[in-house]
Design brief:
Elements: H1 31-40, H2 45-48, H3 58-69, H4 73-76, H5 83-89, H6 100-107
Amino acid sequence: MDFHIVHHNNYGKRCDPPAMPGSIELSHLLGPDGLAQLLSFLSPGPIKGGSGATVGDLNGFVDLVRRVQTPWYEQARDFWTTDKTQEHFGDNNEYRPYVPEHLERIAKQDLD
């Protein structure tokens, strides 16, 4: 499964390419209900049982979840490779750079 965020217009017409028939409206992936839908790609849960995992690219999936669920993540994405970001967060653990308060600082390049 490959993940892309695509555009849908306000008139009910799909704008995404025909090669993406399994697309989901972005609004359906936001908030607690959206998180429940995203997690169902990893596991159907104890009621449904079984493994059911359909995620082949775990890093891509985590990036998608962060983009739609974590405040400031989307805005910070353009700055991952800047010298400031690398210098400030390069030595950190896997968690710290993705905390919303740090993502906001990355997005604003307020890392002095």
